[in-house]
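Same chain as my last thread, 234 residues:
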Amino acid sequence: MSPAGAAPASTVRLSAHDEALPLDVRLRVWYNPGERSLFSLVPGLLGVVLIMPTMSSAVALAREKETGTLEQLLATPMGRAEFWFGKLIPYVISGLLSCFLAIMVATVWFKVPFRGNGLAFGLLTLDFLVATTGMSLLMASFVSSQQAAMIGNFLIFFLPSFFLSGLYQPVPRELSPSTLASHSLPTTYFVTIARGVLLKGVGLAELWPETLALAVLGGVSLGLGIGLFRKKMG
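reply #2:
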């Protein structure tokens, strides 16, 4: 029996003849060693779940048009920016609460790890909610019924978020219409953010491209919404 720590006889013979030593190659999956599909799927689904407050904001604006409540609001000295942010803020807060509950379910029920910073994730979620709610309100300003607002949100945000956001398969790198559509969806960036914070433990320093993209989408949608909004009914 060879002493403890001694090299195997086959290795000694190979090295004596200047041959390459045998390698023991083992595949290791980072961040998800058990290769559990839920660990990848659940963080991505957070972005789809948080679209619900977005749909509610669009339906609420369309309902005010149908009932005539919007005309009463437009008769007040309220400015366009005040009106727009008044519609935006409640649903952003609702989205943050929904995100907190979803994170609790993901970590407690599905045992998904949360390796990142909670405050950083909250700020990134806020960035995402401002972008999605702003885009939803902008879309709702062009429709006049709740049904149209709901269908528009479903076709523009909810359905594409399942297939184009990288939830089930990575977004293609080559330039194509589907790639352009993917990068126009806030959910695409939030899927990367959620997986990065929960599974990899990364923060703002690593996720700044996604953060910047969401800020641009939110700023453009809010700017267009305020600029195109008129204190009159068409």
